[in-house]
Amino acid sequence: MPSPSASSTRLRVRHGIAKTSAAAFTLFQVNGGDWPSVGLPGAGLRGAVLDGVRMREADLTAARPEKASVTGTDLSGAMPHSSRLTGADLRGSDLPALDPLTVEPSGATVGLEQSAVIAGALGLVVA
C-alpha cells in the first residue's frame, strides 16, 4: 500500500483505533478490510480509493474525499460532518449518517437507492 504524503501526516494507532491529524493522503487505496472507529478528521483524501471497506463509526469530520472513489463502503454510524464530497463517487456505499445539510455534496455521484435515503434525510417523500 502506498504511504501517506509527507505533508505533516501523523497516524497513531491506539487500542486498535487509528487517529490522524491534518493528514494529506496521496495515492491512497484500500480494497476491503475492517477499519471500525478509524479517526480521519480533516484528512485530505482527494482522489483516494476506498472500495468495500468497513468503516463503521469512523470520524470523517471535515475530511476532504474530493474526487475520491468510496464505493461499496460501510459508513454506518460514521461522522462525515463538514466533509467535502465534491465529485466523489459514493455508489454502493452505506450512507445512513450522511446529512446533506452538513456536508458539501456538490457533484458527488450516488446510486438510485442512496438518492432516496438522502431525499428522506431532507424531509422529502419519494413516491
UniProtKB/TrEMBL annotation:
SUPFAM superfamilies: Pentapeptide repeat-like
Pfam families: Pentapeptide
Top-rank taxon, per record: Bacteria
Gene3D superfamilies: E3 ubiquitin-protein ligase SopA (2.160.20.80)
Region entry Disordered, spans: 61-91
Alphabetized InterPro entries for the sequence: 5peptide_repeat
Protein name per Swiss-Prot or TrEMBL: Pentapeptide repeat-containing protein
